[in-house]
Amino acid sequence: MATKRTPRSETNSKLFVLDTNVLMHDPVSLYRFEEHDIYVPIMTLEELDNNKKGMTEVARNARQASRTMDDIVSSHPGDIADGISLLKPSSELASGRLFLQTEMIDQALPAGVPTAKADNQILSVVMFLSERFSPREVILVSKDINMRIKARALGLQAQDYFNDKVLEDADLLYSGMRELPPDFWETHGKEMESWKENGRTYFKVKGPLSADMYVNELVYQDGDKPLHAIVKQRNGPNTVIETLIDYGHQKNNVWGICARNREQNFAMNLLMNPEIDFVSLLGQAGTGKTLLTLAAGLTQVLETKRYSEIIMTRVTVPMGEDIGFLPGTEEEKMAPWMGALEDNLDVLNGGAEEGGGYGGEWGRAATRDLIRTRIKVKSLNFMRGRTFINKFLIIDEAQNLTPKQMRTLITRAGPGTKVICLGNIAQIDTPYLTEGSSGLTYVVDRFKGWPHGGHVTLQRGERSRLADHAADVL
């Protein structure tokens, strides 16, 4: 056995042992533990090596994690067994040390636990370190729930990797809306200014609630004189709010579609506003996210000519068993994933035919063909390096994207492009992503208050009474 070394003399700093899935989930996680030390077992390096081949996000992350570790090790001239300071490689983000397993560890696991399994070998390392460095806290960090359960069953400390979580509780996520209290005008209207511009009414109010409001937050007040408005400016205690267009009225229909509730009206105002470049819509199945977005997209592509075409993409995560390789071009391969697009286009085509009178079956077929030429379906796999100019970009099922994937997608937007993210954070199908760490949660939180971004959480399902009841009771 090698001579005993303590990674740090301070017992208040912890020693975190990293599981492979943490590095494959966040390649720069090595810099996320602040003043604490990190220990990487040899089996973690083996598993990184086994997962480095391929073009998947996991393989890219494995390669990036290996490169990050290589940079850290290369920057250290001395013996790596003494630990490598992370202060310089992390640009002072982390002040702890990185330890790599430099000795053979043969810690006896309880009888019946197979020692050949990689997870169990990492557990034996954690057990060994816990005994060697007692009373210092040695904690396993893993995204694998079963791994954490096994660690606790063996009397070891284990945690999930929390650093990527935007929120601990999804209920705290910004909803994009605020109900004004009944006494709002009494408390905020003493020095109120009001004016009209381009058919909209503006109110400049002053009061204590202004400090809590975000730019482009949607505010409402129910009662005899209901108010639906958006926060346009915020300057200290002063706030300018602007009334919204009522898309619930038939005269303001968008491609034959009218908003059926307050949240849908809010969403339509954001989707149709040329000043807003980024919109995120959250909501359970049947709240109308895709239908409203496509209606707004078709109107602005085919009628007002604001955008040249609609580009729609989504993460291809199957709900059940995969159906194997799909034949055809990129668009043909994506077709099975785009059933929601087809369903909504059927509704919109019917609505356009009824509202605009395009001349029966022939007119409907011609409209369908015209729509088809202006909607492109793209795979996420081919997005790197692209720039979309003057496009209406829809990212569907965005809750299955990691924050890094979301950043890659949104940065594709060139001049004149509008990006819309749709999703339901209660339906995440990607392993290791949670409601708190989803890329959709990430962008909603980071974009709140930006003058050219807006968000709405849709509440009421409008699909059918059966779908609403199923969402509540099943």
Automatic annotation (TrEMBL):
<comment type="similarity">
    <text>In the N-terminal section; belongs to the PINc/VapC protein family.</text>
</comment>
<dbReference type="InterPro" id="IPR051451">
    <property type="entry name" value="PhoH2-like"/>
</dbReference>
<comment type="similarity">
    <text>Belongs to the PhoH family.</text>
</comment>
<keyword id="KW-0547">Nucleotide-binding</keyword>
<feature type="domain" description="PIN">
    <location>
        <begin position="14"/>
        <end position="149"/>
    </location>
</feature>
<dbReference type="InterPro" id="IPR029060">
    <property type="entry name" value="PIN-like_dom_sf"/>
</dbReference>
<dbReference type="InterPro" id="IPR002716">
    <property type="entry name" value="PIN_dom"/>
</dbReference>
<protein>
    <submittedName>
        <fullName>PhoH family protein</fullName>
    </submittedName>
</protein>
<keyword id="KW-0067">ATP-binding</keyword>
<dbReference type="InterPro" id="IPR027417">
    <property type="entry name" value="P-loop_NTPase"/>
</dbReference>
<dbReference type="Pfam" id="PF13638">
    <property type="entry name" value="PIN_4"/>
</dbReference>
<dbReference type="Pfam" id="PF02562">
    <property type="entry name" value="PhoH"/>
</dbReference>
<dbReference type="InterPro" id="IPR003714">
    <property type="entry name" value="PhoH"/>
</dbReference>
